[in-house]
Design a protein that fits this description.
This is Succinyl-diaminopimelate desuccinylase. The protein has 377 residues and is of the alpha+beta class. Helix content is 31%, strand content 25%. The structure holds zinc ion.
Length: 377
């Protein structure tokens, strides 16, 4: 079956739009939207392509949000099919971006096209907020578009982000928030020396172990009904290459990441960890990076609409949660009342042989269409 959604998804996958390069993906979407009567505004900045498109007046605004960029393919030799040549095999569509998130973009556009054929006149506004930089820095993408829209007091009532949220069955999981992310580069200083004369040196590895043990088990909070507890993961521990096996190194470098839920703000978490460093009398330097703040969207109305649309098409009631990595929802929440992320299966995202079930692609198109039907009844 070569539906309009499948064809559009293939067309997009065939373009190697490695973040933040769009390479014409957005032109394809824009042409489709212009044909439907949308007004399209380009909000490009530096290396990033963004657009905001809308159609309709009055009533509520439903916005579809997403990104045309993808992560690199990784080792191309390991792919069963060329990553930027959309390939159908056994009911699956293979290619970089199939799940994250060119499939969902295609489903959104086709859902809107079909809705407009059924209902050319409706009260309200349908809009699209699309960027080509979600996967890399994100500096000039959705963040920038949201600041432009916010300046002119643009407001989104309901926003659907097409990130791949499904786990086992299409629509089994949707998200109405995400945890924040911050990381630290920590250096523990000792005194370099001969490994046979430890009394003349201070071993930063030995010094750090009790601290690292407590850090790895540190309970920052217990989570709440919206969020899992905040979590610390140590990602890297190393000494400089300039030491040999008969030396006690002079310093130890440690990296860790914290996914935090906002029960404690980033500053408070940093204070707790600095206290811990003090407790173990460590000589250190630390550099923090805040990658994303947590967000939570109160989605009373939209979750009902989305859940009904999923149940109607796929006979499952979704679990609404805030797990997983960060998303552009953290920017959109500045101008949107209710945000739900709903997309394809996420089991192969960013992996070799990224793929989606073609049946799911069609189902997602139908679910998006039903959301439109329900909102603009
Ligand atoms: Zn994505």
């Amino acid at each position: 079956m070569h539906s309009s959604t499948l064809k559009l998804a293939q067309e997009l996958i065939n373009i190697p739009s490695i973040s933040p390069n769009d390479l014409g993906c957005q032109d394809i979407l824009i042409q489709r939207l212009l044909r439907c009567g949308f007004t399209v505004e380009l909000i490009n900045l530096k290396d990033t392509k963004n657009f905001w498109a809308w159609k309709g007046v009055g009533g509520k605004t439903l916005s579809f949000a997403g990104h045309t960029d993808v992560v690199p393919a990784g080792s191309i030799k390991k792919w069963n099919f060329p990553p930027f040549c959309a390939t159908i095999k056994d009911g699956f569509l293979f290619g970089r971006g199939a799940a994250d998130m060119k499939g969902a973009l295609s489903a959104m556009v086709v859902a809107v096209e079909k809705f407009l054929i059924k209902k050319p006149i409706y009260s309200g506004r349908i809009s699209f907020l699309i960027t080509s930089d979600e996967e890399s820095s994100g500096k000039y993408g959705t963040k920038h578009v949201v600041s432009v829209l916010k300046n002119r007091k643009e407001l989104i009532d309901y926003c659907i982000i097409g990130e791949p949220t499904s786990e086992y069955v299409l629509g089994d999981c949707i998200k109405n928030g995400r945890r924040g992310s911050m990381s630290a580069k920590l250096t523990i200083y000792g005194v370099q020396g001969h490994i046979a004369y430890p009394h003349l040196a201070i071993n930063p590895i030995h010094q750090s172990l009790p601290f690292l043990s407590e850090l790895s088990k540190l309970s920052l909070d217990h989570g709440n009904s919206f969020f899992l507890p905040s979590q610390i993961q140590i990602s890297n521990i190393q000494i400089s290459k300039k030491y040999s096996s008969n030396m006690i190194p002079g310093s130890l470098n440690i990296e860790f990441n914290i996914r935090f839920n906002g029960i404690l703000i980033d500053q408070k978490i940093q204070e707790i960890i600095l206290e811990l460093l003090k407790k173990y009398l460590l000589n250190y330097s630390i550099k923090w990076t805040i990658h994303a703040q947590p967000f939570y969207s109160n989605t009373n109305f939209l979750s009902k609409i989305v859940s009904e649309s999923i149940f109607f098409n796929n006979n499952i009631i979704p679990n609404v949660n805030t797990s997983g990595g960060t998303s552009d929802g953290r920017f959109i929440c500045n101008i949107a009342n209710e945000i739900i992320e709903l997309g394809l299966e996420n089991c192969t995202i960013h992996k070799i042989n990224e793929c989606i079930s073609i049946k799911n692609l069609h189902l997602l198109q139908k679910i998006y269409e039903r959301i439109l039907d329900n909102i603009f009844r």
